[in-house]
Design brief:
Chain B: Its cofactor is Cu cation. Chain B: It comes from Billgrantia endophytica. The complex is a heterodimer of chains A (about 55) and B (about 375). With about 55 residues, chain A is an all-alpha fold. Chain A has one domain. Helices cover about 85% and strands about 0% of the residues of chain A. Chain A is elongated and about 45 Å long. The mean pLDDT of chain A is about 90. With about 375 residues, chain B is α+β, with helices and mostly antiparallel strands. Helices cover about 45% and strands about 15% of the residues of chain B. In chain B, helix 1 packs antiparallel against helix 2, helix 2 runs antiparallel to helix 3 and helix 9 crosses helix 10. The N and C termini of chain B lie far apart (about 85 Å). At the A-B interface, loops of A face helix 3 of B.
Chain lengths: ~55, ~375
């Protein structure tokens, strides 16, 4: 699970080790990446919204 | 290494020349409000961040190009990736962007906060003039460019404020927060005064806001900054910023004059008075399209001198000026001109340039018509 989260975070930044990328494609399940990706996108949007709301106070 | 030094030296000489750029008018002005100074500081900070990044990136690039050129026997490295460097060149720009966004957002929040204003001015863009209305103060007027057409045609020498002078400037007090409400009667214009760091689109059907709190008295000039038709270049902005006491006196005088004008609606006007007033209204409002001698500029702007349709039907003439003509360039002057001005300009156009109808239209008649 932690490995999936790390890979999704790397995808957010747009940088990933080639070795890790290959490993993800060989061993990971697509569904896990999609679910974690969607959840983390929602978390990112929430964090940005919260920062904006706090800054606008 | 020497190349890198040359680049750094170039960068430093730019620092020295920035003051020269400001003096030459190449840079944006510092302005005369706290907010304009803040915007200027932000602009310069971001400019120098860009300069430093540019010097470093191009310095490294040119240094590498020259130092490791093929003729010196350099061999290209052949590797696939370097995660550390990739993370660095992604994270560093991200941090720089956040560093720029934080102060920029703080300034934006101030720009978008017109609350607690002591004076509200409605600014309406019209082809091709500005209308200023001091809300709740019963003072409103049009501000037309006053540069003579002869200067534009090159028949006279250009004045000091060529194309940047008006018959009636917007008058504002210093040290008071003034809220502007912007809209337009026809197309999109933009009210731009660089010294206030205010450039706001005026959009028909919408009201947008902005505000100023001017620190120094003076005359500030600006222009329409949105291409709005043939006379876009001929609708300048002049703001006269006064000490607070002077402004209050000016406002009281204008209120008195407005009250007097309102009284003038009910009395009978002589033909000479109407013609004199009409000539002045025609000169500032109508002549840019229908031309100074009423000769027009067909087909868009019909001639008024000898216009048979207009001369034959006075009711049609009144209706055209009050309500405009839909689908043409002729706007409605219902709100732009008061009953006295409307009556005077109708009388003038029916009796000038050989249009000798003898019709004198009374302001009271127009006022009644406007209420219908």
């Amino acid at each position: 699970m932690w490995g999936v989260i790390k890979s999704v975070l790397a995808a957010f930044l747009g940088v990933q080790k080639d070795q890790q990328r290959r490993a993800d494609f060989e061993h990971g399940s697509a569904a896990a990446f999609i679910v974690v990706g969607v959840v983390m996108t929602a978390v990112l949007v929430g964090v940005i919204a919260m920062v904006a709301i706090l800054a606008a106070r | 290494m020497r190349t890198l030094l040359v680049w750094l030296a170039g960068g430093l000489s730019l620092v020295g020349s920035s003051q020269a750029a400001l003096a030459s008018g190449w840079n944006m002005p510092v302005g005369v409000t706290d907010l304009s100074r803040e915007i200027y500081t932000l602009h310069m900070a971001i400019f120098w961040i860009c300069v430093v990044i540019g010097v470093i990136v191009f310095g490294v690039m040119f240094y590498s190009l020259i130092r490791y050129r093929h003729s010196k026997g350099a061999k290209a490295a052949n590797f696939h990736e370097n995660t550390t460097v990739e993370i660095l060149w992604t994270a560093v720009p991200l941090l720089i962007l956040i560093g720029m966004a934080v102060p920029a957002t703080a300034t934006l929040q101030k720009i978008y906060d017109p609350s607690d204003a002591e004076l509200d001015v409605m600014i309406t863009g019209q082809q091709w003039r500005w209308r200023y209305e001091y809300l709740g103060e019963d003072v409103a007027f049009n501000s037309n460019m006053s540069t003579p057409r002869a200067q534009i045609r090159g028949e006279e020498e250009r004045g000091e404020n060529y194309l940047l002078e008006v018959d009636e400037p917007l008058v504002l007090p210093i040290n008071r927060k003034v809220r502007f409400l912007f809209t337009s009667d026809d197309v999109i214009h933009a009210w731009w005064v660089p010294d206030f760091a205010v450039k706001q689109d005026t959009i028909p059907g919408f009201i947008t806001e902005n505000w100023v709190n001017i620190n120094e008295p003076g005359i500030y000039r600006g222009q329409c900054a949105e291409l709005c038709g043939v006379d876009h270049g001929f609708m300048p902005i002049v703001v006269h910023a006064m000490e607070e006491d002077d402004f209050d006196t000016w406002l009281a005088e204008r209120q008195e004059a407005a009250a007097e004008e309102a009284l003038g609606v009910d009395r009978e006007w002589e033909m000479d008075e109407l013609m004199e007033r009409g000539e002045s209204v025609y000169g500032s409002i109508c002549s840019s399209c229908h031309q100074p001698e009423g000769q027009g500029s067909p087909p868009a702007f019909p001639a008024l001198a000898g216009n048979e349709e207009m001369l034959a039907d006075i009711e049609w003439h009144k209706d055209t000026i009050i309500n405009g003509v839909s689908g043409t360039a002729m706007p409605s002057f219902r709100t732009t001109l008061n009953p006295v001005e409307l009556a005077a300009v109708i009388t003038y156009t029916r009796n000038a340039w050989g249009n000798d109808t003898g019709d004198a239209v009374q302001p009271s008649e127009i006022a009644e018509r406007l209420e219908r």
